[in-house]
Design brief:
Elements lengths: L1 H56 L1 H19 L8 H15 L2 E7 L3 E6 L6 E15 H13 L4 E11 L3 E14 L24
């Protein structure tokens, strides 16, 4: 009799434990999952704090590096005018004439070609290349100075091709093919420049 009661108590205890497990196991499993997620979030936050602490530790260094890069980028961008057109090429040709004594007999320009875009939104800029051909007459020294001028000119330009032949005893004539560049805001209106040109004759584009 006592054994039956004992077995009955054990069975009831086992059933109670089983019921408790069925009832509370999902709760504890859910709690465990939440704790694991919380541990992951804490770990991520600790990583972010470590990054911020490292950034703060090197704040001055990062600021100096940012300013240096900004100056470098500004220096590069300063080499590219915000606009380019035939008037700009005419003005440059006039500089060569007045500064070097070179005679520009004809100037041929082509529409700009977009090479690539920089930035996005309001900061977007488009780099354009304008193929320009100078037909010139001058001395060897003038042509040499023209080449030097192209290389050191503040605004970016590149000598693509140069064709020279003798013209008389001491003179040279030929063509210089240049790429002129601009960094433009898409859709901007082209500026109208005063070139001081009165006539576009066949012998001299400046009518001089």
């Amino acid at each position: 009799m006592k054994n039956r009661r004992k077995r009955k108590k054990i069975l009831l205890y086992f059933v109670a434990v089983l019921i408790a497990a069925v009832v509370f196991l999902p709760y504890f499993a859910n709690r465990r999952e939440k704790m694991m997620k919380l541990d992951d979030e804490i770990e991520n936050l600790q990583k972010e704090v470590a990054v911020l602490e490292d950034y703060e530790l090197h704040l001055e260094e990062n600021r100096a590096d940012t300013e240096k890069r900004y100056k470098e980028i500004s220096s590069i961008m300063a080499q590219f005018p915000a606009d380019m057109n035939k008037e700009t090429a005419l003005l440059y040709a006039k500089e060569l004439e007045s500064g070097l004594g070179l005679r520009i007999d004809r100037l041929d320009t082509e529409p700009g070609v977009c090479l690539y875009h920089i930035g996005a939104g309001q900061r977007r800029r488009s780099l354009y290349s304008y193929r320009t051909v100078f037909h010139f007459t001058g001395t060897y020294q003038m042509v040499k100075q023209m080449i030097d001028n192209i290389q050191i000119y503040p605004q970016k330009r590149r000598l693509v091709a140069l064709d020279i032949k003798k013209d008389g005893q001491t003179g040279l004539s030929g063509t210089a093919v240049l790429n002129l560049y601009s960094l433009e805001v898409p859709g901007q209106k082209k500026a109208q420049l005063d070139t001081g040109v009165n006539a576009h004759g066949t012998s001299n584009v400046f009518g001089q």
